[in-house]
Input
Amino acid sequence: MSDGTKSSDSDVPAGGLANISFGQLEYDRPTASQIYPVLKNAILKMDLEPGRLISEMEVGARFGASRTPVREAFAQLREADLITTRPSRGTFVTKLNLKRFLEAHFIREAIEIANVIKLCDVGLAPEFERELAELIVKQQSMVDQHSDLAFQALDDQFHLTLARATGFERVAGLLEREKMPLDRLRVLSLRNADHQLVLIEEHKRMLDTIVRRDKSEAIEATRIHLGSILNALSSLAKKHADYFDE
Output
């Protein structure tokens, strides 16, 4: 049975692509490499909710793409654990999984603590200090504008900038890849403006302690900041129970 098969589960919404903006395919670029990032971002931003049915046929129709590149994009999404195919039932956006989330948090914390230690040891270059300070100001602006997704993008940029500041070229890419399971949960948690303000203060403390090269304080500030999502996990799982694996 094809990916277009409808699920009999009453709690699984079907479709979901109608409101996703795909744009026009560029025919001088591989089609699969254009489809994959659009679908990935739609899933990570929760435009395609966990548990939602998604079919190759529907995606092909929305993109105006043939079956082969759509299948290639779906294979990449499966590799990233963003979709799951169930025989005779269809393909679904992967639900949030507690164990996978805790594993991703463990890896992310290890990377980010290592970044902080490195920056305290060697010092933060002035250009990175300015960039990080500017990102904090922009985050405050996004709170004022009630732009949750823009706030999250700036939050990501703050942490990736710290990674780039270490001078190790692969660290930022590794961090971005390994934190992916956390991103959808962060979308839910960042819908709260009060929580956003707390995160801004935590970013300020992280930057201050790194600039002062106070290693123990910087490590503590980073652990507290990264741990905030753990504190919200229980309430989010209750509020959005349909998004989580049983």
Q: What stands out?
A: Confidence is low (pLDDT under 50) at residues 1-15. Residues 98-122 form the longest helix (25 residues). Strands lie at 83-86, 90-93. The CA atoms of residues 60 and 67 lie 7 Å apart.
